[in-house]
C-alpha cells in the first residue's frame, strides 16, 4: 500500500440515517453503499425505501434493530432525537446529531457529512451549485422589484389545526424566493408549539397574498382554507393563491428544501409578481 494512503477505511462504512436529509445527501454523493438503515419516513430518493431497511420513525427507533446492523455511525437531527441518541451512545455507538435550523446551518451540515465520507470536494461543488441557484433567484426577484413589482406577503402553514407558521429555514427560503413571511418573528422558534397562531383572525389581519400549505405529510386542502370563517377577505383566498408544497420537499432540512422546495416557492412567487406588475401597469 502507498505510504501516502491510510491503511484503514476513511470515514464511516456502515451508516444509519435517522432522518431523510442525510440519506438523500449520501445518495447524491454516490455514497449510498455506506447506508445500512434509514428512517421509515424517507421518500427521497424513492429507491432508498426499496434498498435499505427502515429502522426508525422520527421520535422513536428500533434500537435492537439498529444495533444488529452494527453501524459505525448514526446520523440524526435535532434535540427531538436526543433520547434515541442517548440510548445508542450507551451501547457504544458513535452518534452525530445535527441541529440545523437555518439555510446556512443546512449548508454546514451538508459539508460536514460530505467530509465525513471523504467527499468534501464533491460536497463543496454541489453546495456551490445550490448557492448559485439561490443567488439567481434573488437576482430574478430584484430585477422585478426594480421594474416595479411588489414582494408578496406569504403565509406558510406547517399545520392546520392549530395553525403553525414556518420554521426558520422555510422562512428564509421564502425570502430568497421573493416573498415576505407574514410571521417572520416566529420563525426562529425551533419547536412547532412555539409557532402556533391560536387566533386565525391574526392571520387574516396580516392579509397574505399567497398561502403555502405543507401539513407535515397530511394533504393540503385549499378548499378547507378558503372555507375558514372570515378568510374570504384574505387576498390569497380571493385570488386563489393557495398552493401545496409537499413536506418532503420543504420541511426536510437538507438538499430537498434547497432545491425542489425553494424552486416551487420561487415559481409561484414569480408568477404572482408578474401578474401583480401587469395589473398595476394597466392604464
Q: Tags for this entry?
A:
globular; Rossmann fold; 11 strands; 283 residues; single chain; 2 domains; 12 helices; alpha/beta; five-stranded parallel sheet; four-stranded parallel sheet
What is the level-2 CATH architecture name of the largest domain? Answer: 3-Layer(aba) Sandwich
Low-confidence stretches: none
CATH top level class name of the largest domain: Alpha Beta
Structurally, how many domains make up the residues? 2
Distance between the termini: 77 Å
Task: Determine the number of helices (DSSP H or I, runs of at least 4 residues).
Answer: 12
CATH homologous superfamily caption of the largest domain: Nitrogenase molybdenum iron protein domain
Oligomer: single chain
The percent range for strand residues is: 5-15%
Q: What level of helicity do the residues show?
A: 40-55%
Which radius of gyration do the C-alpha atoms yield?
21 Å
Q: Largest beta sheet: what is the strand line-up?
A: 3-2-1-4-5
Helix and strand composition category: alpha/beta
Global geometry = globular
Total strands: the figure is: 11
Amino acid at each position: 500500500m502507498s505510504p501516502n494512503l491510510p491503511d484503514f477505511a476513511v470515514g464511516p462504512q456502515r451508516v444509519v440515517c435517522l432522518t431523510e436529509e442525510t440519506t438523500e445527501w449520501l445518495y447524491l454523493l454516490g455514497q449510498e453503499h455506506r447506508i445500512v438503515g434509514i428512517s421509515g419516513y424517507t421518500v427521497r430518493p424513492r429507491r432508498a425505501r426499496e434498498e435499505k431497511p427502515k429502522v426508525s420513525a422520527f421520535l422513536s427507533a428500533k434500537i435492537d434493530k439498529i444495533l444488529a446492523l452494527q453501524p459505525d455511525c448514526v446520523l440524526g437531527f435535532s434535540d427531538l432525537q436526543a433520547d434515541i441518541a442517548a440510548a445508542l451512545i450507551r451501547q457504544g455507538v458513535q452518534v452525530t446529531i445535527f441541529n440545523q435550523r437555518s439555510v446556512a446551518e443546512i449548508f454546514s451540515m451538508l459539508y460536514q457529512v460530505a467530509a465525513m465520507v471523504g467527499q468534501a470536494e464533491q460536497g463543496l461543488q454541489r453546495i456551490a451549485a445550490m448557492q448559485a441557484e439561490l443567488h439567481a433567484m434573488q437576482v430574478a426577484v430584484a430585477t422585478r422589484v426594480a421594474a416595479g413589482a411588489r414582494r408578496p406577503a406569504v403565509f406558510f402553514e406547517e399545520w392546520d389545526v392549530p395553525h403553525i407558521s414556518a420554521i426558520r429555514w422555510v422562512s428564509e427560503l421564502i425570502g430568497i424566493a421573493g416573498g415576505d413571511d407574514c410571521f417572520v418573528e416566529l420563525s426562529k422558534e425551533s419547536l412547532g408549539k412555539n409557532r402556533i397562531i391560536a387566533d386565525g383572525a391574526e392571520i387574516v389581519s396580516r392579509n397574505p397574498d399567497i398561502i403555502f400549505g405543507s401539513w407535515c405529510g397530511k394533504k393540503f386542502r385549499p378548499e378547507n382554507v378558503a372555507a375558514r370563517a372570515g378568510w374570504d377577505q384574505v387576498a390569497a383566498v380571493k385570488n386563489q393563491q393557495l398552493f401545496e408544497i409537499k413536506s418532503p420537499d420543504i420541511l426536510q432540512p437538507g438538499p430537498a428544501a434547497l432545491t425542489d422546495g425553494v424552486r416551487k416557492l420561487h415559481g409561484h412567487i414569480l408568477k404572482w409578481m408578474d401578474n401583480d406588475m401587469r395589473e398595476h401597469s394597466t392604464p
